[in-house]
Amino acid sequence: MSILLMLCAGVIHPDLQMDMALASPGEMLPVVVHMEGALDTEWVNSVTAGMSRAERQVFVVEALRSQASLSQTEALAFLEGCPVERLVPFWLVNGFYCETTPEVIRLLAQRSDVMYIDHGAVETALIEPVERREASPDELNRGLAWGVSKINAPQVWELGYEGQGVIVGIIDTGVDYNHPDLGNNMWHDTDAGYHYGYNFYGSGNPLDPMDDNGHGTHCAGTVAGDGSAGTETGVAPSATIMALRIYYYQGGYPTWIQAMEFAAEHGASVLSMSLGTTPVGNATLRTAEENALLAGIYHSVAAGNSGPYSGSIKASGDCPPPWFHPDQTFHGGQTAVVTVGATDSNDAIASFSGRGPVTWWLNVAPWHDYSDTSPLISPDISGPGVDVLSTYPGGGYTTMSGTSMATPHLAGVAALLLSINPELSVAQLDSLIEVTSLDLGATGKDNTFGAGRVDAYQAALAALETVGTGGYSHAGLQPSLVSVSPVTPNPASSSAAFSVFSPTAGNAKVTVFDVTGRTVAVIHCGHLSPGSHSFLWNVPETLGSGLYFVRAEAPSGTAVGRMTVIR
Length: 567
Prior knowledge:
The chain has helices at about 5-10, 15-20, 40-45, 55-80, 100-110, 135-140, 145-150, 155-160, 215-225, 255-265, 285-295, 405-420, 425-435, 455-465, and strands spanning about 30-35, 85-90, 95-100, 115-120, 130-135, 165-170, 190, 195, 195-200, 240-245, 270-275, 300, 335-345, 380-385, 390, 395-400, 485, 495-500, 505-515, 520-530, 530-540, 545-555, 555-565.
């Protein structure tokens, strides 16, 4: 191993280092480059106090986009003269995917604005059903899919709640938007030119997310199939389906993140995804799921079909949940992910259902927060996943088994609860669903059933009595005036990133001054629109080590943040 690679070892994934050492000169390797700079959760909570859940989502999306655009500019410019293929910038992750040579990877690792370089290769994608078969006459004659009935969804409909007004993104193989049971519930945005969703597959019309596999249509039907063709398969038959067709074969997980970004930008508050990658502990997916939580998006993810073996849950189902069950003794990081196991019609666990525990302590920078001695309990919840009848391309129905079938049941329940109370936070949604579930297996939350099998009606009754926190506002906390986010990195040496929030438009001035009050830099002077604005300050080489302050002056007030410069 070269001395340069050893010096870069702290920011390059260990598996990627091994591939680089074995690569031939000029060989292209897939990577995700993570940039320095992240939104501070406490700061976001402060400036969004008083906002609705939907308003917070818009704010966080714009803040993430602004930050990513600013912090990636120089690195992307550097790559213009390098051998690079399939460059895909992200904003839900502050970074980008590309395929490039070991030599370029080493150069990127030396940059002060690069935080971490993740392995871009994955081994698996779509969690294939363990069985697909034609629906039996008995199944077709029931009129109501057994899973929908089992979780007591019809009792929620009787209360007047069917998921109306809630957009659910189906990140999958596409959706047959012409199916009679789905056509009335498809999302569209004609002003923007989008119909039904988006196709990130890489071939075909980007605006046409038609399903060519059947898996995505089946999952969509479990969320919102309204029974127009004869059988009601949807848990939330009035929810809106956003079809997000991704590259569902090996190596396509960058399109998963693009799909999550599209959903967040276009108002989806619930996501359903039956995909998984190995090795577990994917830093890129976990970062995306953390920011999805920050934006207030509930993400139902399949536990995978690698059971009954323990530790068999794949990424991003291996991410920690938005709410911690009391049986989870170690509180590390949190994300938007609610991981779903599969049960049969007798409430027995499916033999194939993925099991926990999950660890993050080895080779997964920067978390290392769930060790062998304090692992993460997973799955979080279970739902119907064996012999599930649902919609299929062409207008009919088919039967499938897998945790892929359980996952949209949970997404449908989340849609029901949001139609009851649109201001429920992601943590509240998760907690209401877990604590009202039917406890199965070992008492409490366990690594087979999670908290238990979901009960939509009991969760709905609890939601009716819950005051939603929506924008995550704390009681008594008032919306901020002008504010400055924490500076990153801090201490800084070559550059420093931060955001300024202003609730109103007007002329503003953003400066840096030292402990004597002397202005050392004017970063912005002029009009500032309402909202969050990201800034990147290149620290002058002539500036010495010490304590410095960032001051933002706007019509709504003045705010100051501090930073340390180390030379």
